[in-house]
Amino acid sequence: MTNSFDHPKILRSNLGRMRQLGASHHIVEHWKAERLTAIGSAPLSIWFVIQMLRLADADHKTVVQWAGKPVNTVLLLSLMILTFHHMQMGLQVITSDYSRGKNKTILDLIIKGGTFFLGLLSVISILKLALAPAKK
Fold this sequence. Notes:
This is Succinate dehydrogenase hydrophobic membrane anchor subunit. The chain is an all-alpha fold. 80% of the residues lie in helices and 0% in strands. The chain has one domain (31-131). The mean pLDDT is 84.
C-alpha cells in the first residue's frame, strides 16, 4: 500500500500543479497579459473620454493642434496599441473555446491579421493627424 507522502504531487497546490502543465503555463501567461492590457487601457480610456468631451465643440484646427502635442500623441498611440492587443487576445480566447481544427486556425489568422491591420491603420491615422500642419 502506498502512503500519500510517497507522492509529492499530492502536496502541491493547485497553482503549483497548473504551472507544471505544459500548455497550461501558456494559458496562465495569456491570462496575465489580458489583465495587464485591461489595467493599462482603463486609465487611458478615461483620459480619452475626458479629452473628447473637452474637444466636442472644437474645430479641426484645434483638434489637430491637440493631437500634435507629444504627450497626447503618445497617449493616443498607447491606447490604440493596448486596445487592439487586448481585443486580439480576447477574441483568441473565444475562438479557442468554441472552435476546433482547421476552423480555429483560419479564425486565428483572420483575428490576428484583422486586429493587426486595424491597429496599424489607427496608428498611421494618429501619426498623420499629429504630424500634419494645422490648416489656417
